[in-house]
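Q: What residues go here?
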């Protein structure tokens, strides 16, 4: 998987938000092969977010920014190797204050989260996303915020400090969880269970 922060410059803003990487559990290893096997649209059949009708809207925030489209399709990047199709990006709402997009590709997908002047992104192969391994964590003043993209029917559980756990609701194949005590997040997708430790890096 590849995680990046795409900066969207505004007229009066030049600050850059940072995204932090997550460490994968030993049971799951991301695929980073330079040879990408192209798939047809049927590879997205487990993601109903792409099948639901998108309401027509002229609101600028629902449109994927042009600078982001350019980044996702630049030659020579892992993103471009996934055969991404930004014109098919689907707008998603995490909560009343946070939105993003799911971008399909011929052999992968990306989850994008809009955070002020920056767009956080995480991309992976269809095999990894099918297994529920597209999870990213952002550092905030109040602690880690977890975002994820999972297939239909997947369940998400976060283990917190002290031994407690929380079931996280999923809507339109995405989820968000914010708790300073979060230790790890587990995604059950069919027979597969992927556990990711919440461990910030510099």
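A:
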């Amino acid at each position: 998987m590849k995680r990046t922060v795409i900066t969207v410059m505004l007229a009066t803003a030049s600050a850059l938000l940072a995204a932090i990487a997550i460490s994968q559990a030993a049971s799951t290893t991301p695929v980073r092969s330079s040879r990408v096997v192209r798939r047809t649209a049927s590879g997205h059949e487990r993601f109903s977010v792409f099948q639901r009708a998108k309401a027509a809207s002229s609101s600028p925030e629902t449109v994927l920014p042009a600078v982001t489209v350019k980044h996702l399709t630049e030659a020579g990047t892992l993103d471009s190797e996934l055969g991404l199709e930004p014109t098919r990006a689907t707008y998603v709402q995490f909560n009343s204050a946070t939105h993003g997009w799911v971008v399909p590709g011929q052999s992968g997908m990306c989850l994008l989260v809009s955070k002020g002047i920056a767009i956080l992104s995480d991309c992976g192969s269809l095999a990894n996303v099918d297994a529920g391994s597209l999870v990213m964590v952002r550092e905030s003043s109040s602690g880690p915020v977890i975002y994820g993209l999972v297939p239909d029917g997947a369940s998400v559980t976060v283990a917190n400090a002290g031994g407690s756990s929380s079931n996280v609701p999923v809507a339109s194949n995405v989820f968000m969880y914010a708790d300073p005590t979060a230790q790890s997040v587990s995604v059950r997708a069919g027979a597969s269970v992927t556990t990711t430790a919440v461990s910030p890096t510099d």
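A: Context that may help when evaluating the design: Confidence is low (pLDDT under 50) at residues 7-42. DSSP finds three helices and 13 strands in the chain.
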